[in-house]
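A reminder before we start the practical. When you read a complex entry, don't treat the lines as separate problems. The point of joint prediction is that each chain is placed relative to the others, so the output describes one connected object in space. Small molecules and nucleic acid strands, if listed, are placed in the same frame. In the example below there are two entries. Take a minute to note the order of the lines before looking further.
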Amino acid sequence: MRKKNALVIGIANRESISAGIARELYENGYRIVATYLNEKARSHVQGVTDELGVDEALFPFAVGNEAQLDSIIEYMQEKGMRLDVLLHGIAFASEIRKELHEVSWESFRDSTRISAFSMVEITRRFLEADLLNPGCSILTLSYIGANLAVEGYNMMGPVKSILEALVRGLASELGGKGIRVNALSPGPVMTRAASGIGGFSDLIRHVRSATPLDRTATLEDIGKIAFEVIANPSINGVSYVVDCGSSVLVHVGPEPQP
Amino acid sequence: MAERNALIIGIRNSESLCTTIAAEMKRAGYTLYATYQDETTLGGVKEVAGDLGFRKIFKYDARKSEDLDAFVAAFKAEGVMLDALVHGISYSTVSGAKLNLPLVQVGWDEFTDAIRVGAFSLVEVSGQLLDTFNENASVLAVSLRWGRVAVPNFNVVCAAKAALESMVRGLAQSLGKARRMKVNGISPGFVPTYSLSKVGSSLDILERAKESSPLKTNVRKEDVASLAVSVLENNSISGMIYTIDCGVEIMER
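Here is the predicted structure of the whole assembly.
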């Protein structure tokens, strides 16, 4: 019988980072409640969640749709479930292909809500419904573009900076309830979300050449350190970069021959 | 599973953070080797070595080249290949270390001792033992937030920690190139050790840390050890310094 519960928001398909983390949670005995963005995404998400015993605990959720959150909350109340893990792995930027100086306020605002502030909104709803267990761990997914200007990442850099500041803010506010809030900042992984980023395959190539390990972070490794962060009671308010060292190592000289 | 070997530099007694890390590594299946500084700490290290079943301990005072040479030669004579190296020594616990001085009163000799013990020893040991590391082996250094802030009268230790963190990145590059090794650091909040008692009243320091943590808790050594092993065994993590401090660092003060 699975006694601990995790709500996973951010699975698009089996390559999603959230899917990798959900698998790790499932293997460690968590019961998974998951969401999908819309009907178009549903079958892809179900392909992942079917293997994680999610079954009926799969809900549509788009940021801003309070009624959809109501449904998840009602379901959990009926089942007598409270959350031990809240995984926030969603991001969107309509003008991701534009250079930062070309981005409209409307796009930046919407992206900030979906990719960053939604963590606060979702947390607030579950707090108000008293569905967060003491010791609950909130984890979100960031990217080194929050700290460095990464070509092609454009408007998402500042949005992820906002997200990481919200991690620190929530961590400081919710610590009194025993709730921890952290971020994981993986190196580039070929996900559905990443496919929207311009020059992504060039980025992967660059990252591989920056690290002597000649590889990028794997979904499995990301899942493992995610679980450590989620389960470790002394880790709070951090953003751990998992990128084979590529963001701190400066490669000089020709690209290694393939 | 094939035998995995780890070398741990930084155990003084059963209270040492490296002792807890060693215990966790033992649970994870590593065969352990360790060093001790000198005769004054031999008793404490022997006790830990007995408790955790270390294969062997070596004398290594990181200030002394002759110690380094002898230790490296003795380790190589063991004929084992390493999968992990943990470095957790700091100048603050070295016998005879002159601590609690403003920088302007610190002499060059003490300064070089602090840097060699607290930082460069990581380069020396990993470099000289390079041939004994397996491909994909992992190095972990124990740092401290002090590497990024100024601490009155302890800025020598701060400089050493700053150097250590930079060496983590440098070694991630050079050992990565040489043998695809990973090199990382962890930066724990204060935990009760001999080292902490050397920098002030442990109780006061821990109480203050607890108060400034949003969780109102102190970091547990077991949690640091759990993170240490997670980082050591993760093939996608290199060049990083991971803070584990119950959130103390994020608070305005």
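Discuss with your neighbour: The interface with chain B takes residues 168, 171-176, 178, 180, 186-187, 211-218, 221-222, 224-225, 228, 232-238, 240-245, 247-249 of chain A (CB under 8 Å). What might explain this?
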